[in-house]
């Protein structure tokens, strides 16, 4: 996109007129571009280093409980990462909680988003604001106030209260994500379906749902990911129940076992593979669409 | 039921369940917390509502240091995230070319690994016998017995690290929407690069700056994981106090008072920030 301008030595003024500063590929431009690239690379490195460390130390042949200094390569932590029953239990709990709260939050949030976008009823902006509120509250406040309520009502905290808490703070993410998808959608297609005799329910099932599906899927994955990784709100409402983040935080005092690094690495790899598959499927679908409509 | 009435009822049927969930598990707990914050008593005999407004005064005066530290750490981290994240988002939006998707993937990569575990990794990176400390000592940036772990620097570095993606992504979204032709037009009209950046890019990126700052500042203010893992009690923030009051000391009224104050502070902060940026937006548009 940049047009290479010849090096302007003595004819600076002429050069200015010939090529305004925005278009020039001058050495100053290249310098700025380079500096920007280096800065970005450093920023990405900052984000990447801790991840690298976690993966690396899953192979550390550590002696004793602490896994803080590199002592040589081993695969022994990878042979049986579920050896610690508490860790295994915590991981299973986290997965269960993430799936259950994902299902509830996605259902509740999708319907809310549809009503908020479709029906311009009074009080809509108030509800919009109200749904946004949990996103604008610090997690420690959400967790603490929920615990205060459970305590006041004499409700024992545990698995169920964690799910309740997770649905509460992920439902807003679902609403925001699905709303964004709905707002970019052409309503006329749905109306056309109903004009052609589809009932409201059929139009919803056959037209609306397939169209918003990518948004709903993204919202579901987002809510599951947030739920799975949450420490703060969970810590308040967990009672005796352990989750993966709670287990790790609790283990920091006696040293986090390397099996935790193994499991975290496995999860990372699984997510990356799923994302790669998704990209491949999308590309194939796009190609098929192009082939189907040669116009 | 007539069609007319059904049409009126339908949106509420859609909104109802979700709204109810939020009313019961978000709004009611907040109000309940306000009432808990006015109780008095002790952990053994329980607490009763006695309208003890002095809880607020006591809690704030006792923990004003932690409050101040939360705001300071969160503020510094937000500014650092902006300084680190803006060029990154700018590069991804305008100059990355075919590397764009890879850069975006790298920005969200941390989300795929446990937050607590990544913070534990910082413990290891900044530890006294780690590489970073020895390099800093050799360079003279740190005295020979100087430490990085268990210091404000470590806590701020951890918070900045953990919330950088939350800043970079909204910035990217805002910058990506900018039509490059606008910048070309500005420079064609003899605005210098710097002027074009100041008068075109920054105003158009303001929504991203606003969203990113909120997404960084709010969770950073309430965070206690970084202070707990990378700091000492000297670095504890208000989140640490609320957490230990609730879960260890069982002093619910004071914990509730602190938590409610934090919430109010953040709401007022968002409001002022929106007013400030909104006003600037208007003046920019008028020029």
UniProtKB/TrEMBL annotation, chain A:
Ranges that cross the membrane: 36-59, 97-117, 129-153, 159-178, 207-228, 262-281
InterPro entries linked to this entry: Bact_Polyamine_Transport, MetI-like, MetI-like_sf
Record domain ABC transmembrane type-1: where: 91-281
Database matches in Gene3D superfamilies: MetI-like (1.10.3720.10)
Bilayer topology annotation: Multi-pass membrane protein
The entry's keywords: Cell membrane, Membrane, Transmembrane, Transmembrane helix, Transport
Subcellular location(s) per record: Cell membrane
Ranges for region Disordered: 1-28
Protein name per the record: ABC transporter permease
UniProt organism field: Solirubrobacter deserti
Lineage: Bacteria, Bacillati, Actinomycetota, Thermoleophilia, Solirubrobacterales
From TrEMBL, chain B:
Pfam families: BPD_transp_1
Localization per record: Cell membrane
InterPro entries named among the record's database cross-references: MetI-like, MetI-like_sf
Topology with respect to the bilayer: Multi-pass membrane protein
PROSITE patterns reported for this sequence: ABC_TM1
High-level lineage: Bacteria, Bacillati, Actinomycetota, Thermoleophilia, Solirubrobacterales
Domain ABC transmembrane type-1: 67-273
Transmembrane annotation, as ranges: 12-31, 71-91, 103-125, 148-175, 196-218, 255-274
Domain of life: Bacteria
Tagged with keyword Magnesium: no
Keyword vocabulary terms for this entry: Cell membrane, Membrane, Transmembrane, Transmembrane helix, Transport
Entry similarity comment: Belongs to the binding-protein-dependent transport system permease family. CysTW subfamily.
Organism whose genome encodes this protein: Solirubrobacter deserti
Major localisation: membrane
The protein's name: ABC transporter permease
């Amino acid at each position: 996109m940049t047009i290479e301008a010849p090096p302007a030595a003595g004819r600076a003024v002429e050069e200015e007129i010939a090529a305004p500063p925005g278009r020039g590929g001058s050495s100053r431009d290249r310098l700025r571009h380079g500096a920007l690239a280096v800065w970005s690379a450093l920023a990405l490195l900052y984000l990447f280093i801790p991840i690298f460390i976690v993966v690396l130390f899953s192979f550390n042949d550590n002696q004793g409980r602490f896994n803080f200094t590199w002592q040589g390569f081993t695969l022994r932590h990878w042979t049986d990462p579920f050896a610690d029953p508490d860790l295994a239990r915590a991981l299973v709990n986290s997965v269960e909680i993430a799936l259950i709260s994902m299902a509830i939050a996605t259902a509740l949030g999708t319907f809310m988003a549809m009503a908020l976008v479709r029906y311009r009823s009074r009080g809509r902006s108030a509800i919009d604001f109200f749904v946004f509120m949990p996103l604008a509250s610090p997690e420690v406040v959400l967790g603490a106030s929920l615990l205060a309520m459970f305590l006041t009502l004499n409700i024992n905290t545990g698995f169920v209260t964690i799910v309740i808490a997770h649905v509460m703070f992920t439902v807003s993410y679902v609403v925001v994500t699905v709303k964004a998808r709905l707002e970019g959608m052409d309503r006329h297609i749905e109306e056309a379906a109903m004009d052609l005799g589809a009932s409201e329910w059929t139009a919803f099932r056959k037209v609306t749902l397939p169209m918003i599906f990518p948004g709903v899927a993204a919202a579901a994955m987002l809510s599951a990911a947030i739920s799975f990784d949450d420490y703060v709100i969970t810590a308040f409402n967990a009672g005796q129940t352990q989750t993966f983040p709670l287990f790790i935080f609790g283990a920091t005092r006696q040293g986090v076992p390397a099996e935790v690094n193994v499991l975290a690495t496995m999860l990372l790899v699984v997510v990356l593979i799923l994302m790669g598959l998704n990209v491949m499927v999308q590309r194939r679908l796009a190609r098929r669409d192009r082939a189907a409509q040669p116009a | 039921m007539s069609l007319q009435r059904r049409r009126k009822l339908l949106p509420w049927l859609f909104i109802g369940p979700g709204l109810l969930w939020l009313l019961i598990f978000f709004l009611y707990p907040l109000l309940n917390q306000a009432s808990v914050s006015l109780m008095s008593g002790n952990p053994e005999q329980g607490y009763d509502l006695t309208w003890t407004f002095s809880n607020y005064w006591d809690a704030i005066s006792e923990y004003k240091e932690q409050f101040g530290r939360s705001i300071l750490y969160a503020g510094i981290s937000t500014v650092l995230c902006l300084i680190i994240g803006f060029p990154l988002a700018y590069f991804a939006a305008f100059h990355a070319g075919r590397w764009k998707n890879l850069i975006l993937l790298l920005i969200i990569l941390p989300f795929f690994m446990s937050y607590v575990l990544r913070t534990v990794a910082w413990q290891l990176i900044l530890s006294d016998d780690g590489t970073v400390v020895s390099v800093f000592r050799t360079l003279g940036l740190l005295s020979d017995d100087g430490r990085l772990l268990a210091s404000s620097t470590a806590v701020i570095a951890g918070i900045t690290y953990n919330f950088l993606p939350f800043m970079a992504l909204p910035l990217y979204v805002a910058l990506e929407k900018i039509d490059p032709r606008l910048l070309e037009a500005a420079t064609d009209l003899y605005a210098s690069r710097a002027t074009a950046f100041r008068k075109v890019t920054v105003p158009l990126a303001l929504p991203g700056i606003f969203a990113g700052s909120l997404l960084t500042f709010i969770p950073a203010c309430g965070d206690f994981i970084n202070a707990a893992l990378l700091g000492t009690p000297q670095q504890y923030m208000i989140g640490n106090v609320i957490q230990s009051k609730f879960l260890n000391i069982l002093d619910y009224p004071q914990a509730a008072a602190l938590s409610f104050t934090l919430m109010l502070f953040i709401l007022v902060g968002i409001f002022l920030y929106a007013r400030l940026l909104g006003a600037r937006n208007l003046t920019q548009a008028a020029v």
